[in-house]
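Lab manual, section 2.4: Encoding a predicted structure.

Procedure: take the sequence of the chain (296 residues), apply the prediction step described in section 2.3, and record the output as structure tokens. A sample record is shown.
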Amino acid sequence: MAREWSGIQQFPLATQTKLLELLGTLKEKVKNSVTILVMGKGGVGKSSTVNSILGERAVAVSAFQSDIPRPVMVSCERSGVTLNIIDTPGIIEGGFINDQALELIKRFLLNKTIDVLLYVDRLDSYRVDNLDQQVIKAITRSFGKEIWRKGIVVLTHAQLTPPDFLSYDEFFARRSEALINVVDSEARLNRCEIPGHALPAVLVENSSRCTINDGREKILPNGIAWIPNIVETITKVATNESQNIMVDQNLIDGPNANERGKWLIPLILGVQFLFVTQVKKWIKDDIAKAPKSSWE
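Recorded output:
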């Protein structure tokens, strides 16, 4: 059961107005319910981002625990629209994919429809490494490459000063482009398959040191009020032309190894038959051509 989204009242008036406008947009496009899946490595700010979007402490966050132990779904309703935000544990442990955590997430999502995927990482991680590739590959393998048609790259810890030779927007563009390129590579996506589609990226600053503008809104170093911006991006992705991802048992189980390559069996048998037939012919020809002794 969804509870009333009371946290929206904690936002400044300008943010509230924009959020209610976006909820109205979802209502107009017959999106009465939006399910947002939040995934990424541990300790990157997934839970804090959920709390910031909702304007309340909906998910427990501890400085001494980088991740929630299991998936958690928070459902809030406002203006006839329900937001279901699913926070998940990090799927990396000891430098490798934690298959147990990934299986737990998949089982939790059974019979749910994913409207938006928030892939969360940190802006202040200066390079894409093997862990990023592992996580993106694991998400793609688990939910199919089409999940990225509903994806948003979310970069936290955005209140930073980039290196001297880069502007803030240029640093953000390079960092997000590096991650998006990994997604395109691992998921084998063609950005031209869907006209006008590109994996969007947004910035987040969950800490109290985030700059405040005159309207009391939290803004980034480039002046953007980030909470309305991320909700607006969520709205656009939730209503884009791509099909939502229904998590059923077949998606969880993955391809059946017994069915894989089954169509090749008749072809292999046919090749074997032709090969054996030809070998027999060669043997008969050799026998016929062989010189015979006098008694034969």
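Check your result against the sample. The mean pLDDT is 87.
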